[in-house]
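can u do me a favor
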């Protein structure tokens, strides 16, 4: 006997309709933030003060009709404030989130990451059909710069204290001449933070993406630490066997097509008894649905960026952003590490720190 078709409860339908509508509002918010960020409108409102549409357009070399529409949309959405002369301003809370590049609350770059994904939707559809991928370089400057700008405040403000709080690691990194590698270093902000935190150490950043290394070299030159901070464009799978005292991988193992090969190269490159530190997403131990905001965000990034990036260079493990601790542990064991610990670093953005251990000397 077949069961009668289920009639949806009107309240469920209305509630789900509301959810989709608020997602549409969220999406328009993010794309409008992208415009305001990339056109320099938020920065001008912050640096030069409140403005009418004409004034903002003049200051930023943009078109006044578009500036008016955007300003009104921002005010209607309670992002900007507006006075009776139609002069628009950035309230202090929004100002920090949208323009303060040094703040742990800085989130304008998030819009750039989502816009980078939106720009590749035709390629994503093709990848989803064929099993192919969309590479990090194809996502382009928006993704690369978003990544760098989102993580920079965490490396500059929170990483030093976090590492100092792990005594066993701090002792090793503090030794004169300690050799540190930072694989998948992107624009190099983590490498700069390591070099600044450990002034007696020598730090080498490695990334496979040439434009990222270009950014890192520029950032290093401005830091005045180039005597002991270098960057190299290379595949971390080819990290030469060497005597590093620590190898870091910040938010990149889940993107790598062959994470076990990279971890194995890192293990061979470590001095005896030394460890590798992997910072990756602090996702739950196992899948459960519905998930919390972090799981939802990470699955979102996985769909749109990280999984297609990982699958763009076959053969690939196809890890995706939601790399569970058990997955990394297995990668580490397959790569020849003897074990994996979670380091006692808590409340560090979206991330968790893992230590991959080698046999004691
Ligand atoms: C999500 S970004 C993270 C960048 C940086 N660590 C950060 O925290 O901002 C991932 C980086 O890993 C790099 N990457 C991926 N596979 C790599 C490999 N096999 N060797 C070196 N770098 C790699 C990418 O080019 C990209 O810059």
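np, heres the sequence
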């Amino acid at each position: 006997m077949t069961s009668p078709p289920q009639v949806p409860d009107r309240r469920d339908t209305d509630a789900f309709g509301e959810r989709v509508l608020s997602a549409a509002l969220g999406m328009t918010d993010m794309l409008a933030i992208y415009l305001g960020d990339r056109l320099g409108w938020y920065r001008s409102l912050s640096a030069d003060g409140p403005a009418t549409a004409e004034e903002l357009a003049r200051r930023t070399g943009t078109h006044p009709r578009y500036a008016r529409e955007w300003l009104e949309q921002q005010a209607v959405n309670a992002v900007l404030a507006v006075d009776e002369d139609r002069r628009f301003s950035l309230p202090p809370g929004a100002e920090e989130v949208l323009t303060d590049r040094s703040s742990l609350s800085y989130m304008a770059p998030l819009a750039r990451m989502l816009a980078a994904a939106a720009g590749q939707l035709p390629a994503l559809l093709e990848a989803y059909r064929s099993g192919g991928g969309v590479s990090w370089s194809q996502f382009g400057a928006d993704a690369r710069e978003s990544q760098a700008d989102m993580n920079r405040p965490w490396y500059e403000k929170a990483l030093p204290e976090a590492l100092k709080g792990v005594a066993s690691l701090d002792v090793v990194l503090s030794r004169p001449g300690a050799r540190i590698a930072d694989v998948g270093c992107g624009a190099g902000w983590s490498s700069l933070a390591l070099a600044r935190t450990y002034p007696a150490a020598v730090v080498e950043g490695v990334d496979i993406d040439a434009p990222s290394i270009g950014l890192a070299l520029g950032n290093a030159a401005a830091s005045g630490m180039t005597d002991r901070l270098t960057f190299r464009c290379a595949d971390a799978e080819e990290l030469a066997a060497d005597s590093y005292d620590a190898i870091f991988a910040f938010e990149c193992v889940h993107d790598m097509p062959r994470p076990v090969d990279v971890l194995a190269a890192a293990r061979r490159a470590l001095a005896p008894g030394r460890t590798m530190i992997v910072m990756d997403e602090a996702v739950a131990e196992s899948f459960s649905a519905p998930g919390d905001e972090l799981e939802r965000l990470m699955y979102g990034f996985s769909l749109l960026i990280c999984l297609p990036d990982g699958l763009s260079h076959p053969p690939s493990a196809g890890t995706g952003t939601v790399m569970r601790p058990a997955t990394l542990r297995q990668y580490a064991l397959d790569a020849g590490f003897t074990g994996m610990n979670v380091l006692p670093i808590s409340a560090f953005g979206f991330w968790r720190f893992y230590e991959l251990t080698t046999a004691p000397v």
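The mean pLDDT is 96. hope that helps!!
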